[in-house]
Design a protein that fits this description.
The chain has 144 residues and is α/β, with parallel strands linked by helices. The protein has a single domain (38-143), classed as Glutaredoxin (3-Layer(aba) Sandwich). The protein is built from four helices and seven strands; from the N terminus they run βββαβαβαββα. It has helices spanning 46-55, 70-86, 101-106, 133-143, and strands spanning 4-8, 15-19, 42-43, 60-65, 91-96, 114-119, 122-128. A five-stranded mixed sheet has the order 3-5-4-6-7. Strand 4, helix 2 and strand 5 (91-96) form a beta-alpha-beta unit. Helix 2 (70-86) crosses helix 4 (133-143). The longest helix has 17 residues, at 70-86. Bound molecules: zinc ion. Residues 9, 11-12, 14, 29, 31-32, 34 line the site of zinc ion (ZN).
């Protein structure tokens, strides 16, 4: 369990290499010294999306949403709770498709909310429609 894993900092987006065994020990970023896990989803825009997609050594679960979407807003607390439960084995992120239409187009997001699960830069699962925390956690764990 000493293989290193790359964790991308949710604050400064630096790639941190650390032993898997240290994941659960509340690791901090070597660059900005802030916690690498905050028990909350990370808001991602196109500036930093590819850094997380391409470098993250843990699966990345992205909630494609928009502020005008009622079901998206309703699911936000469930997604936040899922982040608390799934870290540090997953990174949860949110992409505002209204602010980031190019990201939505690039991944062919046709309805929101859409959850997409990425590992090693590749999408491995996708689910459209809102989910509660329990369903979300079960779905993610069933896909990796
Ligand atoms: Zn940092």
């Amino acid at each position: 369990m000493s293989d290193p894993v790359i964790i991308v900092c949710p604050h400064c987006h630096a790639a941190n290499r650390l032993p898997v065994a240290r994941l659960a020990e509340h690791p901090t970023c070597g660059k900005c010294k802030q916690p690498l896990f905050t028990a909350a989803p990370l808001e991602l825009d196109s500036t930093h999306f590819d850094q997380h997609l391409g470098r993250s050594g843990i699966p990345l679960l992205v909630d494609f949403w928009a502020p005008w979407c009622g079901p998206c807003r309703a699911m936000a607390p469930a997604f936040a709770e899922a982040a608390r439960q799934l870290e540090p084995h997953f990174r949860l992120a949110k992409v505002n498709t209204e602010a980031e239409p190019h990201l939505a187009a690039r991944f062919g997001i046709r309805s929101i909310p859409t959850l997409a699960l990425f590992r090693n830069g590749h999408e491995i699962a996708r689910q459209a429609g809102a989910m509660d925390t329990g369903s979300l956690v079960r779905w993610v764990n069933s896909r990796v």
